[in-house]
Design a protein that fits this description.
Elements: E1 2-7, H1 17-29, E2 33-38, E3 56-59, E4 62-65, H2 67-77, H3 89-119, H4 125-136, H5 140-145, H6 147-165, H7 177-192, H8 202-215
Parallel strand pairs: 1-2
Antiparallel strand pairs: 1-3, 3-4
Bound molecules: glutathione.
The site of glutathione has 12 residues, from helix 2.
């Protein structure tokens, strides 16, 4: 059976936005798999993949990492239902994937940072703080002090999603990998934090409810 190596926090919480993308694809395609929890400090569990980040999948002796590469692998393995269901949609999803990585995820991360920290396994917390402070170029206290500014930035990013979903059921009209990418980010935020994401975004909320139901996640 296919194995998914999935980030785990305290109380068995699964919160990686990238792992949730992969789980969304597996659920949509109804591909059975074994879920193997991995803490940040458990790098030896995924050493076979030749790098140190999850998601990783192992399938028939193949080791695949990076959620985008995994999405392509799963589409080839089991084409139906398709996450790239037509001409140009894989390319459009590549751009959307990148947009979520570079715009939505950092804006959400700065707002939910303390909740994330509390969700990380206690044994991983020092590592998480050091690496994330380096990545953000700020201490956690500095991020917390600017929360209102960062919250406004996050709502601006959510407003872009709302402007699209107020007009159509899915980001590209029909369900594609773009929806799995945005799903991963919102799942990440909602499993760790009580932060209100949908108060001003009814279209996004309706899409969120629909997608969770469709994927059963
Ligand atoms: N581009 C990668 C990013 C994966 C990634 O950054 N995963 C995080 C968990 S959310 C991780 O495993 N980080 C390892 C670390 O920080 O040591 C993907 O799309 O899969």
């Amino acid at each position: 059976m296919l194995e998914l190596f999935d980030l785990v926090g305290s109380n068995d919480l699964r919160f990686s936005p990238f792992c949730w993308r992969t789980k969304a694809v597996l659920a949509y395609k109804k591909i059975p798999y074994t879920n193997i929890p991995v803490r940040y400090m458990d790098k030896e569990k995924i050493a076979f993949s030749g790098q140190g980040a999850v998601p990783v999948i192992r399938d028939n002796g193949a080791a695949i990492h990076d959620s985008w590469t995994i999405a392509g692998y799963l589409e080839d393995k089991q084409p139906e239902p398709r996450i790239f269901p037509g001409l140009g949609l894989k390319e459009a999803c590549r751009f959307f994937n990148r947009y979520i990585d570079s715009t939505l995820n950092p804006s959400v991360a700065r707002v939910i940072l303390n909740d994330l920290y509390a969700s990380v396994d206690p044994g991983d917390r020092d590592y998480f703080r050091t690496t994330r402070e380096q990545r953000l170029g700020m201490t956690f206290d500095e991020v917390a002090a600017r929360k209102e500014e960062f919250r406004a930035q996050m709502h601006a990013a959510l407003a872009d999603l709302e402007a699209t979903l107020a007009e159509q059921a899915y980001f590209f009209g029909l369900l594609t990998y773009a929806d799995c990418c945005a799903f991963g980010s919102l799942k990440w935020a909602t499993v760790v934090s009580q932060e209100a994401l949908f108060d001003k975004t009814p279209g996004l909320r309706a899409w969120w409810d629909r997608l969770q139901q469709q994927l059963g996640l």
